[in-house]
Specification:
With about 190 residues, this protein is of the alpha+beta class. It has a domain of about 90 residues. The strands form four sheets. A two-stranded antiparallel ribbon has the order 1-2. Strands 3-4 form a two-stranded antiparallel sheet. A hairpin with a 7-residue loop joins strand 6 and strand 7. The N and C termini lie far apart (about 95 Å). About 15% of the residues have low confidence.
Amino acid sequence: MSGSKSMPTTPSKGERQTMSDGTPGSAHDRGRDLDSTTSDATGEASPNPRSPNPAATSSGTSPTAGDSQALVFETGTTPVSPRRPLNPGLYAPDPANPAPEPATTVADVVYRLMHPDQSLYSEDGTTVTLTIIWAVLVAGPERFGLTTPPDGRHSLDEADYLHHYGRFYGLSPQIWEWLTGGEDTLTLPASHFA
């Protein structure tokens, strides 16, 4: 065979490569260099928009106070999102009444359902209005399924322990029936929860 081709060699472990500008470095270092700057049509280095600090330039000048990007992406700070993070579960939290974490045992769920938040009481304190959204947040979305149309309301899953043992742990018959199907809200006298 005549004229064998030579294969490019990679450095062995512990050996360093030399970058195109003559400085020592590895392939990993070259990738990092590419992330921090990009070249524009003139060959000048410009900040990479995907870089962690897009306001920084290769010239070393600091951004001006009038530069809106510089105010958001200054070194050491993170941009502030105008959106509020969602709680785990089916629904976004109500900013006025943040939802409690779901209970883990049937006894805990029953206790929390039978001791509703003060925000669910009427202004005069005589009635309590429960919403299915509140019940799903208290018990956990994994305990519920959607009913068939036309209403598509969340209802307690028949295979869930709360469905089978909720009454045993003290869940009232009215709340149990409401959880298994019914309207989106249930209004009961406050004495029901005393």
